């Protein structure tokens, strides 16, 4: 028994070794299958253990190793665990059973139909943010609260709990503007345009955005091809104070950290319940110090929100919870029947954004119009334009070049404007018949872009060549696939060739 363990009768000691394994947000500890501590403490595979070094602790999941790369007396740590503990290698770690968590009992109760009040939800969210709950418990919570199992009161309490376990920004000016799109629509990259227009008109908009988890691009992924987005809170404040707005990755400023963990678990389960969506969106808006918020709900058969009835339910809940947490909210519905713009993928969407800002004659008109509509609403609720006059003011800011000048200023303040990359491999997907485009499948087109490498390869994705109502000839390109490697290009093309209804064409008699 080593000296540290001798002074910690409730803990066993192993020497820290960096495993160099990326496990996203899940801390993992690798221990030999023949480890004496594992046998004596009952640390089976998938057991949760608490690891401590110099007062820092992390809850990690045990994975057993049956190979000799890990020595006797060593504990291999994944990158998330290594970062939390701040190790350099060779430290003696105290490893013990974690304390029994009250939040596990609350999750179990919800599974059996019990309601959750603010205090219980705050306990759960605190443990979620601290990484104390296993993925099994997280999945149980996500499942138990999906499918309409959360009341309006519980949704308000969940939103407040998410806000209260993270950082909350406070700005020295008012009003602070924000926007969010509930998603499900490829290419809908309006945020950089809206931020540029709204801040060019004198409003303040410190925008934190997400990276893609299951989509071909998030706003942060797209913006990162144009300027740095990994700004900490101090850097973000400096940018906003200098130019009135920013577009940064929310993960770098740690707002509503419990939500980031829940998203990681809920997306693979394909459980995006209304209550969790509302709590996710509004907790981050409140945490960012926003006061007046525009919510965009695209509605379409292959969008996230597929019917007017679903939009009614979601919009009503957003307004109810927004009012409860002190946000002035406006909800708008937009067309979700087809992708927006031409590009789907970080760099391709960035090129569309630049084309609109630079008033290029070939810029996608639908992206421009959607951005003007949303910016107009924000200018109205921000007090810069009267009712119905926001669109015209937004159009003036864009067409005069003010929005482009402001966007350049934002990029320079964040670290410098750069040109988005170009993929080395491009291949067309051709129409099999002549006719009129009557439908497109947002989800399947997004999958083609992802299989081509987006967002991991920023230049990858697809460019759409047709819109609903277009008349096309047999052999005409419907879209082009962009990839960094020939393998990804072939993979995406093979998927597209197997699908029915990617782009539906009604043949001309």
UniProtKB/TrEMBL annotation:
InterPro entries (alphabetical): Glycosyl_Trfase_fam3 (IPR000312), Glycosyl_Trfase_fam3_N_dom (IPR017459), Glycosyl_Trfase_fam3_N_dom_sf (IPR036320), Nuc_phospho_transferase (IPR035902), PYNP-like_C_sf (IPR036566), PYNP_C (IPR013102), Pyrmidine_PPase_CS (IPR017872), Thym_Pase_Put (IPR028579)
Catalytic activities: thymidine + phosphate = 2-deoxy-alpha-D-ribose 1-phosphate + thymine
Pfam families, alphabetized: Glycos_trans_3N, Glycos_transf_3, PYNP_C
EC number: 2.4.2.4
Gene3D superfamilies named in the record: 1.20.970.50, Nucleoside phosphorylase/phosphoribosyltransferase catalytic domain, Pyrimidine nucleoside phosphorylase-like, C-terminal domain
Keywords (A to Z) from UniProt: Glycosyltransferase, Transferase
Source superkingdom: Bacteria
Class of this enzyme: transferase
Family indicated by similarity: Belongs to the thymidine/pyrimidine-nucleoside phosphorylase family. Type 2 subfamily.
NCBIfam families xrefs: ARCH_P_rylase, PRK04350.1
Protein name per the record: Putative thymidine phosphorylase
Native source species: Acidovorax facilis
């Amino acid at each position: 028994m080593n000296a540290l363990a001798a002074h910690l009768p409730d803990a066993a000691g192993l020497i820290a070794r960096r495993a160099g394994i990326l496990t996203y947000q899940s801390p993992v500890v690798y221990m030999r299958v023949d480890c004496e501590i594992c046998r004596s403490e009952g640390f089976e595979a998938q057991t949760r253990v608490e690891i401590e070094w110099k007062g820092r602790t992390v809850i990690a999941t045990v994975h057993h190793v049956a190979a000799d790369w890990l020595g006797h007396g060593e504990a291999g740590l994944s990158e998330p665990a290594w970062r939390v503990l701040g190790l350099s290698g060779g430290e003696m770690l105290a490893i013990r059973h974690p304390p029994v968590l009250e939040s596990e009992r609350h999750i179990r109760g919800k599974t059996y139909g019990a309601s959750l009040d603010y205090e219980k939800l705050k306990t759960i969210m605190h443990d979620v943010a601290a990484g104390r709950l296993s993925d099994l418990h997280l999945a149980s919570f996500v499942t138990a609260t999906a499918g309409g199992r959360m009341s309006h009161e519980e949704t308000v309490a969940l939103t407040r709990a998410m806000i209260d376990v993270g950082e909350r920004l406070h700005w020295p000016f008012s009003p602070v503007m924000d926007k969010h799109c509930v998603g499900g629509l490829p290419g809908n990259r309006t945020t950089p345009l809206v931020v540029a227009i709204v801040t060019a008109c004198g409003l303040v908009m410190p925008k934190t955005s997400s990276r893609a988890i299951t989509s071909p691009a998030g706003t942060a992924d797209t913006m990162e091809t144009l300027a740095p987005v990994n700004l900490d809170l101090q850097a973000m404040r400096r940018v906003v104070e200098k130019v009135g707005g920013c577009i940064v990755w929310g993960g770098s400023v740690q707002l509503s950290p419990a939500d980031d963990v829940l998203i990681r678990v809920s997306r693979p389960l394909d459980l995006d319940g209304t209550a969790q969506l509302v709590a996710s969106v509004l907790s981050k808006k409140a945490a960012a110090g926003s006061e007046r918020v525009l919510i965009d709900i695209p509605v379409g058969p292959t969008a996230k929100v597929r019917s007017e009835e679903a939009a009614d339910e979601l919009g009503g809940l957003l307004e109810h919870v927004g009012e409860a947490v002190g946000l002035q909210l406006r909800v708008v519905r937009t067309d979700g029947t087809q992708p927006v713009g031409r590009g789907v993928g970080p760099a391709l969407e960035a090129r569309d954004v630049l084309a609109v800002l630079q008033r290029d004659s070939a810029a996608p008109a639908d992206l421009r119009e959607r951005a003007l509509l949303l910016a107009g609403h924000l200018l109205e609720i921000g007090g810069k334009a009267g009712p119905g006059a926001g669109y015209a003011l937004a159009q003036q800011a864009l067409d005069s070049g003010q929005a482009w000048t402001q966007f350049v200023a934002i990029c320079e303040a964040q670290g410098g404007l750069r040109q988005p990359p170009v993929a080395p491999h491009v291949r067309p997907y051709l129409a099999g018949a002549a006719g009129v485009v009557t439908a497109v499948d947002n989800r399947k087109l997004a999958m083609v872009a992802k299989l081509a490498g987006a967002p991991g390869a920023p230049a990858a994705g697809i460019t759409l060549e047709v819109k609903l109502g277009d008349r096309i000839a047999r052999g005409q390109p419907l879209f082009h696939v962009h990839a960094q490697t020939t393998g990804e290009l072939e993979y995406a093309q093979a998927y597209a060739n197997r699908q029915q209804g990617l782009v539906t064409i009604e043949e001309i008699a």
